[in-house]
Amino acid sequence: MIRSMTGYGQGSVELRGVRFQAEARSVNHRFLDLRLRLPGSFQSLEKEVRDAVRGRIHRGRVEMTVNVIRPEGETDVQLNDALLSTLLEAARRLREDHGLSGELDVATIMRVPGMLREPGERVEPGSEELAGMLKAMTIAMDALLADRLREGGHLVEEILGRLSGMTGLVDELDQHADRVPGEALVKLTFRIEKMTAGLAMDEARLAQEAALLADRSDVTEELVRLRSHLGQASHLLSEPDGEPVGKRMDFLMQEIHRETNTINSKSSDLAISARALALKTEGDKVREQIQNLE
Question: Max alpha carbon distance in the chain (Å)?
Fold first, then answer.
């Protein structure tokens, strides 16, 4: 299965009046970059969640956000009395033991992380709440993967169409390349006749120079490699092996780009240059698309 790196999914689970809501979204990234936003009391789940995501997603920037919505009577913001006492005691010791001056004000205290317990947050969630949280996140992850798979299918369809068009351009290049030796001889003969103004020419030397010119502009090897790279790319997308294809496709497109540039630099034939330019343009469009493949 070939997936895009862009997707969105959400999941919701309700247990005993408490609702766990999870959202997962992902965008392009060279590697896996996982960002979790969990309620403070559920931070113990972070490692388990990260391991689960790594087992199912290989590339992309993934953001997972989870919220806990409790009944109205349980959603009031609460002051963390234990933390406040610790903070005040620390301030007293700084003044008495170290001679430091200054007082804690309300604004400073309120900025201390964890001083206020967020709605839906408890110090030690029970096993049932942990299970509910994980289930909501799993549902969101499943939806995200389904979205990435659906988008990946659309991308593959478009890329295969462009690869087919690029193969057609290589066929046209091959046909024009076959005429290069004969055209090189005609052009060289015309130029020499024009320069020598009808003087006798050494036919053997003329043929030798034409052969050298044709050899310098020969693109047979480049066309063979182009066919090979295009065939590999199409096979990779048509018969995926279950592994991420984005990086491998990017490498193949770099090689195709290099061979196309070589063909363009070797040939002075306008028909070949025009098709090489069209091939390069299509290749650039494919490279843009595969940046979104996992």
Answer: 112
* Domain region containing 60: 7-74+119-148
**Structure confidence by residue, pLDDT tens digits, 204-237:** 665 665 566 666 667 888 999 999 999 999 999 9
The overall pTM is greater than 0.85 = no
Cα 15–23–154 angle (5° rounding)?
130
- The count of structural domains within the chain is 3
Residue range 136-184, pLDDT digits in tens: 999 999 999 999 999 999 999 999 999 999 999 999 998 887 776 556 5
Taking the C-alpha atoms of residue 53 and residue 165, their distance in angstroms, rounded to an integer, is 37
225 with 259, same domain: the answer is yes
Concatenating the DSSP letter of every residue in 66-96 gives EEEE--GGG-S-EE-HHHHHHHHHHHHHHHH
List the structure tokens of 269: 């034939």
- 160: exposed, middle or buried (Cβ count in 10 Å: 0-12, 13-18, 19+): middle
Q: Could you tell me if 38 and 46 are in contact, meaning their C-beta atoms sit under 8 angstroms apart?
A: yes
